[in-house]
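User: What would this chain look like folded?
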Amino acid sequence: MNKTIVSTSPHITYIDTSRGIMLDVIIALLPAVLFSIILFGPRTIILTLVCAVMCVLSEYVCNKIMKRPVSIGDLSAVVTGILLAMNLPPQIPFWIAALGCVIAIVVAKQLFGGIGQNFANPAITARIALTISFPVLMTTWSEPGAWQIPDVDVVSSATPLANGASYSLTELFFGVTPGCLGETCALLLLAGGIYLVIRKVITPTIPLCFIGMVYILSFISNICAGVDLVTSLVNALAAILSGGVFLGAIFMATDYSTSPTTFWGKIVFGIGCGVLTFIIRQFGSLNEGVSFAILIMNILVVHINKLTTAKPFGWEAEKC
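Assistant: Here's the prediction, encoded as structure tokens.
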């Protein structure tokens, strides 16, 4: 006869593990990774593998040095490696990508205690560090399909966010534009996001607030500049399809460790990311602002959670 087990609450029956969640994220990223190989050539495979392997190796070494249980089996380091690769230009030297992996895992993750204890997204932290350290290499882009041209290593081209660059909405949506490996095809990133929502790995709150706010502010900016209504709508759509808005909103702003846990907190976080992205794009010296926006909001997550956590029933503030 089966024994009845009696225990105190909470009674948790959710079967997902960290490894299962990370595996879902990898599956969601695969279409964009495969498409980047078609756009930018076989070198993309090597770059992605370098990032994934170096992240796993960095985590393993840290675990051993810090005498912690080996955590590479949870696949979080693999996800960090793939996300970092998706945030890099196709022709970035492999040694710089490897350096970014060390920054992501050692500095942004393990020094703060490992998975679940880092305050900032490791891949974003590494991208920002590399952008500041190697600004030219991190902003040198390849034209899609240039790898098929004989005797040519790099064909530099402007990204959709660069001044004077002009691409149709179709090109932006399907990703036939220069950019980082994972920033080009909005369609495949959106498909990956829908997969994660269906699998209940993420909720759509942060991505919708993030992307929606960039769209609204871009539209208002166009209207204030005297652009007609239809063109303003199109330009705003181009703004969210350009750069890393979809990649950042879906795959990095939703990171469990560095995003709010409350519903209203997620709304505040998503709106904040969208506002900061627009401000940096519009008034900053950089064409792209997604990474900096997410990092700034990561820092504020503790306060957002505190301000948006519901008070227990019957709770009263302490009187002075």
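Confidence is low (pLDDT under 50) at residues 7-15. If you want, I can go into more detail on any region.
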